[in-house]
User: Fold Glycerol-3-phosphate dehydrogenase [NAD(+)] from Cutaneotrichosporon oleaginosum.
Amino acid sequence: MSSATSRVSTAPSSPDLHPVLGFSQLNMASGATTPERPSSPISFPASPLPSGKHKIAVIGSGSWGTALAKIAAENALRHPSRFHSEVRLWVRERQVNGKKLTDVINKTHMNQRYLPDVPLPENLVATPKLTDVVKDATVIIMVTPHQFLHTVISELQRVPGTITPGARCVSAIKGVEVEGTNISTFASLIEKELGTPCSALSGANIALEVAQGQFCETTIGCPSAEDAKIWHAVFDAPSFRVNTVEDVNGVSLSGALKNVVALAAGMVDGLRLGGNTKAAILRIGLQEMTNFTLEFFDGVQPGTFSNESAGIADLITTCYGGRNRKCAEEFVKSGHSFEEIERRLLNGQKLQGTATAEEVNRFLTARGCADRYPLFEKVFKISFEGLPPAELVKGL
Amino acid sequence: MSSATSRVSTAPSSPDLHPVLGFSQLNMASGATTPERPSSPISFPASPLPSGKHKIAVIGSGSWGTALAKIAAENALRHPSRFHSEVRLWVRERQVNGKKLTDVINKTHMNQRYLPDVPLPENLVATPKLTDVVKDATVIIMVTPHQFLHTVISELQRVPGTITPGARCVSAIKGVEVEGTNISTFASLIEKELGTPCSALSGANIALEVAQGQFCETTIGCPSAEDAKIWHAVFDAPSFRVNTVEDVNGVSLSGALKNVVALAAGMVDGLRLGGNTKAAILRIGLQEMTNFTLEFFDGVQPGTFSNESAGIADLITTCYGGRNRKCAEEFVKSGHSFEEIERRLLNGQKLQGTATAEEVNRFLTARGCADRYPLFEKVFKISFEGLPPAELVKGL
Assistant:
């Protein structure tokens, strides 16, 4: 993989991870004037999905990974004819009060660090070695922090045959990745690097609320009907309703771009404007998210944004809660820079929204079409170029 | 007009008006098994719109009527080649501290009762006599409380020739009207009774915020391109962006049905569920609003709901603010009946959401398809039949 790779992710970060990277190496002068358009569904012939019972592996044990693993493990028990009961969860080994973390999780059936006080099913087994986690697995849930994805992929690629032929992946890692002038999703990256068809899962899914069994919905974009069937069985539950769509790219991009709109929503709150203005900003933001994805990705359905949990529902949750909204409100009220607000409120971590806004703007400017995305452009200019926040809503 | 007419409206009500009526006389046994479907655009040949400058009349001077009149009067000055500068506003005469209300408004250029402290343009003239208001008017804005609409229409019908031939109307009265087994919109009622093409205006438009010039958007459903052009000129302003669509019925219905979804949103808040669940409820509610309107009305475009201010934006505003949401939260937390909550919090006025939920349910039940609208059905059963609120999100 290229070293000129950078990422913007919306996956929940934990304090000890590296700050989210921007698309800092985005190099519009690299010579590619007609960037590749990622295609959906996948462009290589996939091996057939193995028959018989499926074995589920979960790579990533942060709050979102553990919540998804909980649901998958419960469903493995619910559908014993379709799944092996044991579901393996990759946990990076470390010592906790003199004990191995995997032992603690497997004994207490809790992941106290990332999902406090939520009991996990006993058939969910924390496993320290990545190759043990994916051994014989036919359905693999990728939910690492995006910073670790390349390392994980390299590890999985090191020994040929590590991934079961015909296995399927799903990415619950939100965000997009830029290499030179190309934008691609993590689902397409996984698909390309591991040679497995990769679906994308996204929705209005705050991890703790999901783990507590509060009713919610999610969307899975799947490259084939067969993939849709398997992922529906892995995840759908009475309190976690799954809708599958064909639009893998739309599901992936909605999760990345919503954070730019959440900054705009926070600015509206900071300006003390009312509900009319905020609702207008969400509506315009959803349009720009849709249009951007349609313009730069293949196989995109506008309905993914207007009708699905990954689109409108996740946007609403993010614009009424969440730290992008909150920091943008503080940005307007305090007059401080985002850098300072990040240092003060986020312990130095970088906001996903500002990183995405910056790189989307650079990307659009290089293509000469930033003016077709006036809200994205204004959020960038207010955040980084000193445009007064009150200009946000003028001339939209 | 039939005495078996009842209404559900979402127009702002003032304390001295009658409580909002439910569809109390909805009589499914009236014999009509195949109800009329209102058509859009209009089904009669309209007289041509008069040429030359247009004269604007506004019928209704509550907060929303006054806010719209302010915008129209400002635009009349902004486009002197298209409009007569004087815009007449119908104000029911009464005495205020020994003075005529119309004199007070015309002297102070404020409507202190309904739009306190908002200066009105001097070319907006409060006029007590309805026939004087519409005399020579070619564009007529109907924004009365729905309870008075029939009286207003009768008064306008009394003397033939009161309405200028070829005049156009727009209804900013939200809600639907039921006669027997038929549902119709106020726009179609006005169109039928006055013989004028009638557009419909709706959006995320809290009146006071609009009048204060806070940025917002609105949607106008227009039966022809000519109507769209004239209404765009009457209303579009830098802080009040108008989008015109062909879907008159979708614009009308979105404003009525959103209040049922707002009850569900308030119940979620009352149950202390989080952002995931609330966003899921909004998404499902928007789907049911769209499907209901598609099923029972002609000319409906799903995009009116998913893309327009009248749809998604107004729904968001209503589900995060507004009294339907608030009273439903209180309903769940207190365990009291809506009747009691209305008495306590609304001074006896009836909520629009509960009235609409009740009648929509009766309507759907009679047609044997309530099960296709599970959210509408649950809101009704929780509100009126003792279903526990926690059942709201089960099995959706």
